[in-house]
Every structure is written in structure tokens, then in C-alpha cells.
TrEMBL record:
<dbReference type="InterPro" id="IPR013154">
    <property type="entry name" value="ADH-like_N"/>
</dbReference>
<dbReference type="InterPro" id="IPR020843">
    <property type="entry name" value="ER"/>
</dbReference>
<dbReference type="InterPro" id="IPR011032">
    <property type="entry name" value="GroES-like_sf"/>
</dbReference>
<protein>
    <submittedName>
        <fullName>Putative quinone oxidoreductase, YhdH/YhfP family</fullName>
    </submittedName>
</protein>
<dbReference type="InterPro" id="IPR013149">
    <property type="entry name" value="ADH-like_C"/>
</dbReference>
<dbReference type="InterPro" id="IPR036291">
    <property type="entry name" value="NAD(P)-bd_dom_sf"/>
</dbReference>
<dbReference type="Pfam" id="PF00107">
    <property type="entry name" value="ADH_zinc_N"/>
</dbReference>
<dbReference type="InterPro" id="IPR014188">
    <property type="entry name" value="Acrylyl-CoA_reductase_AcuI"/>
</dbReference>
<feature type="domain" description="Enoyl reductase (ER)">
    <location>
        <begin position="66"/>
        <end position="378"/>
    </location>
</feature>
<dbReference type="Pfam" id="PF08240">
    <property type="entry name" value="ADH_N"/>
</dbReference>
<dbReference type="GO" id="GO:0043957">
    <property type="term" value="F:acryloyl-CoA reductase (NADPH) activity"/>
</dbReference>
<dbReference type="InterPro" id="IPR051397">
    <property type="entry name" value="Zn-ADH-like_protein"/>
</dbReference>
Amino acid sequence: MSPNEQIDLPEFSGREVYFLVKLSFDMGLQVLHTTAQVICYTYKIFGKEPLEVMDTFKALVLDKKGEQTNLDIKQLQKDDLPDGDLTIRVAYSSVNFKDGMVAVNNQLVESYPLVPGIDLAGTVMGSQDNRFKEGDEVIVTSYELGTGHWGGFSEVARVPADWAVPLPEGLSLKEAMILGTAGFTAGLSVQRLEDNGLERGQGSVLVAGATGGVGSLAVNMLAKRGYDVTASTGKSDEKDYLKKIGASEVVDRHEVEDTEQKPVRRKQWAAAVDPVGGKTLQYILSTLDYGGSVATSGLTGGTDVATSVLPFISRGINWLGIDSVKCPMEKRRDVWQLLADDFKPDMHDELVNEVTLEELPDVLRDIMESKVRGRTIVKLG
């Protein structure tokens, strides 16, 4: 390369610019040119093509031999990755109840071996789709990720481009996984409630399962938006935590369970966010105020709901189903933008627990035993 030949330079930090300028004065232009070549080469190796020097990477793998299932951290090669348009260097993943269902209870698994993890956030390392390029930061949640397609509990992932959402301005990769599927579900729930008429000052909004991921984030989002929030929980020692993240009142979960199957009770709630289901949902339906809505997204309390048409036809209530798995991409992008802006919760230290891949199996067992509160994120990058 001649001294007059142009080269494409990456963006340099202020320190690098100072170093290059000083060299140009101290040692002459030829040394400057050679130094720039070295920096470009180093940038190419360590910045643009990390997979080429990352022959192996770690992942949590669920496998089955006969009737025996095993959950182990393994060293994988890039050739082990599934098909997909985007190869992603994963920075963070997060832990959801659904991940425990897969990794601990071996439910929802379409085939073995499988890398669980229904959430990931990271940087595109390779793209076969013109909508994305190397260096783009993306979020991938739901679809078949972590159930039918290798998921986020891996240092490297490969996914269809149709599943990826560009990281909105206003969110870091870490914040995106503090939110994850739980935050997306909470945000979608709040949006649906407001679209169906919920306004500040109408009365208290009940959040069931409030110490869980969806519940905790819903409490904080609603409180930040000016709503009076009542949080229900089965963990009596978490009252201070719930008050700190925004709850005005905390009630025991048994106070909001329908044990008598009464279809209509005293009106109590302007609206509700329910990631629990079962008898809790029965109680909510019977106690919503006139025109109130409940956004239902979970089944930790059971799938069966005994109700009648009475609260619907006598109070005009709305039962809103919340689906984060197959939510259309346009809506998905809209909700993520809200989560980066108007719906962005406070990232309280009490809300977030960060773990390593090595600590993850214990956390997955804990979440199935209701021993986890708030959000647990997994640092991978």
C-alpha cells in the first residue's frame, strides 16, 4: 500500500486520535500510516469478526438420553449453531418462568438437544438479511426461541431475522434483558388496559403475582404512570420490596382468590394485571368496577377459570388476553419503543439479580419453587 492510497478507518476514540497525531509530529507521516494500518487490522480481528477467533463458546444445553434428561454447560462450536439469518454475540439473557418449565420440568421442548432461554440481547456478528448488518444491537424474545429453536442461554446464538427487534434508543442491552419477555408482557398489558379506557384517578389497579417478573415490572410501570397500585403476593416478607418499587398497598394473595365461585362481588378494581390465572383470575373478574379490564398473561395459578356471563353483561367488563409469543412485529416494535420511553420502569437494584451461566441451573430450579423475585438476568458477553 502506497502512502497516498486511501484506506477506510474505523471511528477512533479521543485517546487514539491523540496518539496518532502525536506520532505524526514525532516520527513522520509514514509511521502514522503504518500505525493506522495496524489499528485497522486489530479492529478487524477484535471488533468486526469476533466469531472467527471464537472457535468455541459456552452454552447451557438440555439433552435427553433415553428417559434421562441432563442440563449441563458445554463448549460448542459455531458449526453446532442452528440455521438462521443472524448470528448474534449474546450480551445478556434473562430468566422467566417459561425457562424453568423447559429446563427443569422438560415441558414445551420440541426436540433435543436444546439451548433454553426465551430471551436474548446482543450484537449482530453476521447477517444474511439486508435489514441487519454487523454491529447492530438487537433484542430477540419469544417465538420458538428456547423451546423449538436454540435460545439465549449461550454466548453465541443464531436466529431468523424475522424474530429480531432493533434495540430502541433509550435502552441498553442490559436494560433490555431486565425487561425481557416479562417486561414486554407487562408493557403490552398496560398498553391494552389504557387502550380499553383505563385512566388515572379511576381507582386502584390490582397487580397479581406482584413479586414475579411480570408483576414487579407492571407495579413499577403503573406507579410511574401515576396509577394507584395494589400488589398481591403470597410472600409476606416482600411487602417492603413491593412498596419500594411503587405499590401503594400490598395484600395477601389469599385475599384475592375465589374460593366460593361467586360470579359477582363488591366492586374493587378499576383494572388488573394478572399473570397468575386460576382462582385469582376468577376473583378479579367478579370484583372489577364497571367497564374495568383485566389483562391476563399467565397460568402459574392454574389454567381453569370458573366464571359466568354475569360480570360481563352486568358490569361491561373486559377480559383481555395478552400473548407475547406470536405478537405481530409491528406491535412488538411499538411496545419496545414504549418500554424505552413512556413505559420505561425504574431499574431498582432490588428489582434485578445478575448471575453467570454457571449459576443459572440453580436459578432455574428456584424460579419453579417461587424463590425468585423481580428479574434475574444472565451476563454472557
